[in-house]
Automatic annotation (TrEMBL):
<feature type="binding site">
    <location>
        <position position="136"/>
    </location>
    <ligand>
        <name>substrate</name>
    </ligand>
</feature>
<feature type="binding site">
    <location>
        <position position="273"/>
    </location>
    <ligand>
        <name>K(+)</name>
    </ligand>
</feature>
<keyword id="KW-0808">Transferase</keyword>
<protein>
    <recommendedName>
        <fullName>Ribokinase</fullName>
        <ecNumber>2.7.1.15</ecNumber>
    </recommendedName>
</protein>
<keyword id="KW-0963">Cytoplasm</keyword>
<keyword id="KW-0630">Potassium</keyword>
<feature type="binding site">
    <location>
        <position position="271"/>
    </location>
    <ligand>
        <name>K(+)</name>
    </ligand>
</feature>
<dbReference type="InterPro" id="IPR011877">
    <property type="entry name" value="Ribokinase"/>
</dbReference>
<feature type="binding site">
    <location>
        <position position="234"/>
    </location>
    <ligand>
        <name>K(+)</name>
    </ligand>
</feature>
<keyword id="KW-0418">Kinase</keyword>
<feature type="active site" description="Proton acceptor">
    <location>
        <position position="238"/>
    </location>
</feature>
<comment type="function">
    <text>Catalyzes the phosphorylation of ribose at O-5 in a reaction requiring ATP and magnesium. The resulting D-ribose-5-phosphate can then be used either for sythesis of nucleotides, histidine, and tryptophan, or as a component of the pentose phosphate pathway.</text>
</comment>
<dbReference type="InterPro" id="IPR002139">
    <property type="entry name" value="Ribo/fructo_kinase"/>
</dbReference>
<dbReference type="InterPro" id="IPR011611">
    <property type="entry name" value="PfkB_dom"/>
</dbReference>
<dbReference type="GO" id="GO:0004747">
    <property type="term" value="F:ribokinase activity"/>
</dbReference>
<feature type="binding site">
    <location>
        <begin position="10"/>
        <end position="12"/>
    </location>
    <ligand>
        <name>substrate</name>
    </ligand>
</feature>
<keyword id="KW-0460">Magnesium</keyword>
Length: 290
């Protein structure tokens, strides 16, 4: 099967800071790195490194050909990434000494995808394939509708979180992943807790506490996170999601897919960077944790 990812593609400019800046504060960075990023690109790379066939649907500017080449290098099918007359999306990421981060995001080309291009890409999908969306592109609702009509397993990573964006795609979803704060915000907006949502599979990520899996008609299942020394949490959630999707794609029971994704996310937070440093399946399987 194939994982189809309507996803963002960014240049991530990562600044190493002694602490996250307060309003009005000027800080000198200890270092600067540029990585391939964007929630979409991160998830595509993670799923590909976890052993799945991944086709990325997205857009870059004329300045973003390097990002397309990098995705190809990492095993992602990039035939459906178009080039548009807007700058490639980019993120300014500040990371402090404890690994916490703040992110300023410019969407750029990620919000310029032609819906007809989306339809052309998904016309190559097969029943049973997976489709993943995040809230960093345009055409999310159209993609979810296409996916449902084509018999794909439609998945949504609810970040950056907007309750209206989640509600717009909710009728078409088979799988939803969001963090604890986002789940509470969605409950306040809709009156539905994560267990009440009309979605077959829901995962609520809990950061250092792990994750909670809710399947319709079953009791919640809790998963503990591995204890590691975090140096950078950027991209850890995307790595987790990509590995869960790859597990689903390969027919793993959801519990097994989450356990493997937990290992991948634990490794990810011990590394500086985003898509370029996502661990591959061998690293995840060989890793040892206290």
């Amino acid at each position: 099967m194939t994982i189809w990812n309507l996803g963002s593609i960014n240049a991530d400019m990562v600044y190493d800071l002694p602490h996250l800046p307060a309003p009005g504060e000027t800080l000198a960075a200890h270092g600067l790195d540029r990585f391939l990023g964007g929630k979409g690109a991160n998830m595509s790379v993670a799923a590909a490194r976890a052993g799945s066939r991944v086709s990325h649907i997205g857009a870059v500017g004329h300045d973003g050909r390097w990002a397309k080449d990098r995705l190809t290098e990492y095993g992602v099918d990039t035939r459906y990434i178009s080039e548009v007359d807007l700058p490639t999306g980019h993120a300014i990421i500040a990371v402090d000494a404890e690994g916490e981060n703040l992110i300023i995001l410019y969407p750029g080309a990620n919000h310029a995808l032609d819906v007809s291009h989306l339809g052309q890409a998904l016309s190559s999908a097969s029943t049973g394939d997976l489709l993943i969306l995040q809230n960093e592109t345009n055409a999310q609702v159209e993609a979810a509708q296409f996916g449902r009509k084509l018999g794909l397993t439609v998945c949504y990573a609810a970040a950056p979180f907007q309750a209206q964006a989640v509600q717009a795609v909710l009728p078409y979803l088979d799988f939803l992943i969001l963090n604890e704060i986002e789940a509470e915000q969605l409950r306040q907006e809709t009156g539905m807790g994560a267990a009440d949502l009309p979605v077959r599979h829901v995962i609520v990520t809990l950061g250092a506490k792990g994750a909670r899996y809710l399947q319709q008609g079953n009791d919640p299942v809790e998963f503990s996170a591995h204890k590691v020394q975090a140096v950078d949490t950027t991209g850890a959630g995307d790595t987790f999601t990509g590995y869960v999707l790859a597990g689903m794609d390969r027919g793993m029971p959801m519990e097994q897919a989450i356990l493997q994704a937990n290992r991948a996310a634990a490794l990810m937070v011990t590394r500086h960077g985003t898509a370029d440093v996502i661990p591959d399946l061998r690293e995840v399987r060989d890793a040892t944790f206290d």
